[in-house]
Amino acid sequence: xxxxxxxxxxxxxxxxxxxxxxxxxxxxxxxxxxxxxxxxxxxxxxxxxxxxxxxxxxxxxxxxxxxxxxxxxxxxxxxxxxxxxxxxxxxxxxxxxxxxxxxxxxxxxxxxxxxxxxxxxxxxxxxxxxxxxxxxxxxxxxxxxxxxxxxxxxxxxxxxxxxxxxxxxxxxxxxxxxxxxxxxxxxxxxxxxxxxxxxxxxx
Amino acid sequence: xxxxxxxxxxxxxxxxxxxxxxxxxxxxxxxxxxxxxxxxxxxxxxxxxxxxxxxxxxxxxxxxxxxxxxxxxxxxxxxxxxxxxxxxxxxxxxxxxxxxxxxxxxxxxxxxxxxxxxxxxxxxxxxxxxxxxxxxxxxxxxxxxxxxxxxxxxxxxxxxxxxxxxxxxxxxxxxxxxxxxxxxxxxxxxxxxxxxxxxxxxxxxxxxxxxxxxxxxxxxxxxxxxxxxxxxxxxxxxxxxxxxxxxxxxxxxxxxxxxx
Lengths: 203, 260
Prior knowledge:
The structure holds 2 protein chains of 2 kinds.
Chain A: E1 4-6, H1 10-34, H2 48-72, H3 74-77, H4 82-89, H5 109-133, H6 140-168, H7 176-180, E2 183-185, H8 186-192, H9 194-199
Antiparallel strand pairs in A: 1-2
Helix pairs in contact in A: 1-2, 2-5, 5-6
Chain B: E1 6-11, H1 20-28, E2 55-62, E3 68-75, H2 84-88, E4 95-97, E5 103-105, H3 115-119, E6 126-127, E7 133-134, H4 140-144, H5 150-154, E8 160-164, H6 165-174, E9 179-180, E10 190-193, H7 211-241
Parallel strand pairs in B: 1-10
Antiparallel strand pairs in B: 1-8, 2-3, 4-5, 6-7, 9-10
């Protein structure tokens, strides 16, 4: 028996990094639009007009790839069971020093919530993005609200991204393997996702 | 402000709807005529366009006895003291305030985001075929050379009075005029003397930065900076307090992340 089990296949990993790369492009090209404080980031794209152009292309890639990711995992994300409720009640044990163990499936309750938020936010960011792009085609009050919502969702997105990166790297050593190489160690699978580990034939 | 804030006093009671201001503006700014359709009113065009920085609104109304009344209103950028367009513009210098208090624009610096279109309380900025902002710039080039703005120069009835803003306001007040825009939005650069309620001229009764725009730029934006660094701080604090989830059972012998 090998030391590793497969967590994400090649297609899943490529899709994830498409989402990540387009997100990073959106972040860098959008910062200057968010606040004049970040005006300097425009130079990465040869100026504000270039940044807007990059934002539109990256937005399209992000919209499609992120929603694909969402729909690929929709079935897993929308199945909350008693174990998930237990996870939520103690916030995954993240605010405790005692090593708590949860009988999570392939995704724990926090990951499910994160995925659902990502799907909804991607959709709304895409819709508001198009409205902000061609404001003359929509009622002024709608565009004004759309600008607000785009900024608000961006903020929530970035904050969650900080947490996502932390939890999948130094917060939970071994997690990143699944997204880099596809395989995770058996000990990791048993510890973090015992129900899933059992399903795929681990003990 | 280094210099006296300049502006217009638009005395609507004097306006005869001749539209010399529209024509003079087009002539000075080298803008072509827009092709329009006759709609049964002398009002033409019926809205500001990228080629039309100011126009006369014709407001026709009839009372019960069939007496027709006309109101004329010079529609243009009013050069707000607290300008929504400048608040949202992400390109430094694209929309800027001159020493005289004018909200001017620089097409070279405009990045075509169109935020100003939505943030203006008066729905004034327009984007042309070049995808750059246009609106009345109060002929800041002429003013700099000691001349009147083109529209004011052409106005035959002194409806458009140009000069120091404070002086124009006190003169109008002394004449018993009802003023619009004296204090709203940190004072409009274009103050109107109206004969009717602002709404009758299609002006907002109490002009202000649109609520969503205020929330976006004055609440979400600063909170965003706080939110980002707050989440970074939360993650760091978590790491040094509750700590990372090492895979302890792995044991020392097998290597991996287990700490010693």
